[in-house]
Specification:
Length: about 350
């Protein structure tokens, strides 16, 4: 039995279908719900900004001419190639597999190892995209610095007003997080952005609200600080205050990934992020078509159908020098921001 015989019943389509059915880690909120996923039959990302202004009509005297109006409209667009990402893994226990194959063993062990590696590919690719989404939220830019030889930066032009700093760090009990957040929401209202639907932050940033003077005074209805009880607030009491001020609900974010063997938080703990509704109009995690998918979907007997080409692709193969069995996970994709002024990313600590 040859190595090719061992692989004959493990198709690229089977591996890819299995990979795409693997759920993302629950902590990966950014690429699941904050920057929802979009798959396109493209190799480029595109954003369009268009709109129009309509001035009010004017009254006129009877028998007077109707005044002429003016049209005010604009449209801008940006596009560029989606960067490729992925990894390759050599199947472990190769010598044992080859020894068993020479004795007529079945391929069950190899198939198990192949699918184990597919799970690793999926987690690795999704982890990198989650980290990229955190990068975009943190500073408004998608940046690669000599990553496997690739340097790239896409600036989404998030206005400075949408990345404010709290007047006093919220770790100081004398700060006023209520006034800060209301001011940021008012800014969104002033520019015509939708009302924030959600706050994404760390448990650490939230914890400082419990002993905050402004929150305690709001909960107890104190006019004079000296009459405010000194007890810290519970999470339920904090949410009562937020409800009274019509502030959006809070969701904690704690995802970590491993970069070159070291754990890294996807988002800094000092951020308070106000997220808009209808998020697919704000930002998306865009997947395109890989070079591997283009090759596999061509010809009269394609290994994958053209409709399945966008998204993550898993391939497998062998080589003779040295003798190796390998799997490869590949994707092209990145977080893309369509409306850079619809959210707030505030530094609060």
């Amino acid at each position: 039995m040859t190595i090719q015989d061992l692989l004959k019943d493990v198709s690229v389509m089977d591996l890819t279908t299995f990979a795409r059915a693997i759920p993302s880690p629950k902590d990966f909120l950014l690429t699941q719900t904050i920057f929802p996923t979009a798959e396109m039959r493209e190799v480029k990302w595109r954003t369009k900004d268009s709109g129009r202004y309509v001035n009010v009509a004017k009254y006129r005297a009877f028998n007077a001419s109707v005044p002429f109006a003016t049209r005010e409209a604009w449209q801008t667009s940006r596009e560029d190639a989606l960067p490729a990402l992925g990894q390759k893994l050599v199947v472990s226990e190769q010598e044992q597999i080859l020894l068993e194959a020479s004795h007529g063993s079945d391929q069950a062990r190899l198939i198990e190892l192949l699918y184990d590696d597919v799970e690793r590919h999926v987690e690795a690719i999704r982890s990198r995209l989650e980290l990229a989404a955190g990068d975009v939220l943190t500073d408004g830019r998608f940046t690669l610095e000599q990553e496997n030889g690739l340097t790239l930066e896409v600036d989404w032009n998030v206005p400075a007003e949408n990345m404010p700093v709290a007047r006093i760090p919220w770790s100081d009990p004398a700060s006023d997080p209520i006034a800060d957040e209301l001011r940021w929401i008012q800014h969104l209202d002033d520019i015509g952005a939708p009302e924030p639907e959600l706050v994404i932050t760390s448990r650490k940033a939230f914890s400082y609200l419990a002993a905050n003077n402004a929150y305690r005074a709001a909960y107890y209805g104190s006019v004079n600080p000296s009459t405010t009880p000194t007890a810290t607030l519970t999470p339920q009491q904090i949410n009562v205050v937020r409800g009274n001020y019509n502030l959006p609900p809070i969701q904690f974010y704690k995802a970590q990934v491993r970069v070159d063997g070291k754990p890294r938080k996807v988002l800094p703990e000092d951020l308070w992020i106000l997220v808009p509704p209808e998020r697919e109009k704000w930002a998306q995690t865009m997947y395109g078509v890989t070079a591997e998918a283009l090759v596999l979907s061509r010809g009269t007997n394609p290994e994958i159908i053209r409709e399945d080409a966008p998204g993550l692709i898993i391939t497998r193969g062998v080589q003779d020098d040295p003798v190796q069995i390998w799997t490869k996970g590949a994707a092209v994709g990145m977080p893309v921001m369509h409306t850079p002024d619809a959210h707030i990313v505030a530094k609060v600590l």
